[in-house]
Amino acid sequence: MIHQKRRQELLSRLGDNSVVIVSTNSEQKRNSDVNYPFRPDSSFWYLTGFTEPDAIAVFSNNNYSIFVRPKDKTKEIWDGERLGVKSAPKVLLADNAYSINDFLKTIHKLIDKNNLVYFDDSSTNKLNENITSILANNTKLLNTVISEMRLIKDSNEIQNMQTAANLAAKAHMAAMTKASPGLYEYHIAAEIDAEFRTGNADYAYPPIVASGKNSCILHYTENNKLLNDGDLLLIDAGCESLGYASDITRTFPINGRFSKAQKQIYQIVLSAQKSAIASIKPGEKVNTPHEISCDIISRELNKIGIMKDLDNLTEFYMHKTGHWLGLDVHDVGEYKIDNDFRDFEEGMVTTVEPGIYIRKNDKIDPKYWNIGIRIEDDVLVTKDGHHVLSKSAVKEVKDIEYLMSQNIT
Ligand code: GLY
Ligand code: MN
Ligand code: MN
User: Fold this and answer.
1) DSSP per residue, 199-213
2) For ligand 1, which residues put their CB under 6 angstroms from it?
3) Is residue 408's pLDDT more than 80?
4) Ligand 2 centroid distance, CA of 351 (Å)
5) Rounded to an integer, what distance in angstroms lies between the CA atom of residue 231 and that of residue 181?
6) For residues 70-105, b (16+ Cβ closer than 10 Å) or e, as one string?
């Protein structure tokens, strides 16, 4: 029902004679006969709830048709069951279903010349190119209309996102409890993996388990180095539960105790992150958390002599403070409208993830070298302010040190 309501809402934002075409991904080859694990297209999933590959939905105010893979006895023995054409209308609440193999010869019957066709081209479906060439004169892109809908989460989505955040928070705390010098980054990655799998969740993106100097590589995913006594471990890991992502980063000392220099930098990032989160409420500009983070980080780094020139912030903090989160980890939705940052609205979910990354640099005291710290939470905008979905993952120095002191391995 929820998907039906979303289709109706989408149509109500388009003209009366509109027809929407939205497809989902094809399977992607990894190597030889091996495919990557299949992940449906997010907008298709959002509008249909259908999670098989190679399907296309076509709907208007009068009709909802869906093209699906036909039943195939041999393929189903090898690769798993298919819903099939016969069952599709009842299960997916469609008026008609057809084989995806008949798409090109059937699509014309579903569209007449007065229709305005809206097409979402984000999926990797093999038929996308055919759709654009067949309907070339008559088509408008739908992506931004769906993006605006997906940007505001409904209660079902918020529930899924809370589940994803809870699971990831638990995984981060398991990682803190497990970490100790002598283990490898992949031992900690395995701990996170176990928490995700036992929660029936998958990764929302490749996890970053970055110790020592690797913590200064923003998208480090090798996850294979030794954990050294005295180094930090930065973990950026989030899971996907029923399609919805969490995206959490925690940074902690491998031996369970922050050095003085590590604590000093950690407290700057934490204070920037807390102030940035505190600003989030409906009506506030979506760029405010970033402005607050930049301001605090540059002032504090300047105060302790690491950053002499206030204009040098990007040397130590080179990414944005947040992004939309939802079915995609970097979720859809504009940040600006007519060149101005838009306002936060109830139901949006953003990450807040300031960081400081200090590489080896002869102009900086060596006690700060190889300190990379990011703290990232997932924040829902509520009617009166915000709710931190990932708040159960500890982040205060004393809480991290206490949890790590319970490490009994
Ligand atoms: N995990 C990717 C990001 O934080 O944006
Ligand atoms: Mn993020
Ligand atoms: Mn992240």
Assistant:
1) TT-EESS--EEEEGG
2) 205, 236, 247, 323, 329, 353, 376
3) no
4) 6
5) 9
6) beeeeeeeeeeebbbbeebeeebebebbbebeebee
Confirm if 215 and 373 have CB atoms less than 8 A apart. Answer: yes
* 82-113: pLDDT as tens digits: 999 999 999 999 999 999 999 999 998 998 88
Note the pLDDT tens digit of each residue in 131-148: 777 776 677 888 899 999
pLDDT tens-place string over residues 346-370: 999 999 999 999 999 999 999 999 9
Whether 376 is catalytic is yes
Q: Is the pLDDT of residue 409 over 60?
A: no
User: What's the pLDDT tens digit per position in 135-183?
Assistant: 766 778 888 999 999 999 999 999 999 999 999 999 999 999 999 999 9
User: Looking at the predicted structure, is the pLDDT value of residue 303 above 80?
Assistant: yes
| Higher local confidence (pLDDT), 128 or 174 | 174
Q: Per the confidence metrics, is the pTM higher than 0.90?
A: yes
3-state class (DSSP) for residue 111? coil
pLDDT for residue 240: 98
Number of H helices, E strands in the chain: 13, 21
Residue 205 is encoded by which pair of tokens?
């993106």
The ligand 1 atom at the shortest distance from the C-alpha of residue 236 is 1
The whole-angstrom separation of Cα 13 and Cα 327 is 21
Phi and psi for 273 in degrees, rounded to 5?
A: -65, -45
Give me ligand 1 centre to Cα 349, in Å.
Answer: 14
User: Which residues fall within 8 angstroms of residue 339, CB to CB, at 6 or more apart?
Assistant: none
Nearby residues of 316 by Cβ (< 8 Å), 6 or more positions away: 297, 301, 306, 307, 356, 357, 358
Distance 318 CA to ligand 1 centre (A): 13
For residue 247, the ligand 1 atom closest to its alpha carbon is 1
Helix (H) or strand (E) holding 7: helix 2-12
Q: Please say if 357 is a catalytic residue.
A: yes
Give the nearest ligand 1 atom to 205 CA. 1
Return the DSSP state at 47.
H
Stronger pLDDT, 254 or 15, i.e. the higher one: 254
- d(C-alpha 389, C-alpha 281), whole Å: 15
DSSP 343: B
Catalytic-role residue among 64, 98, 357, 368:
357
Neighbouring C-beta atoms of residue 148, cutoff 10 Å: 14
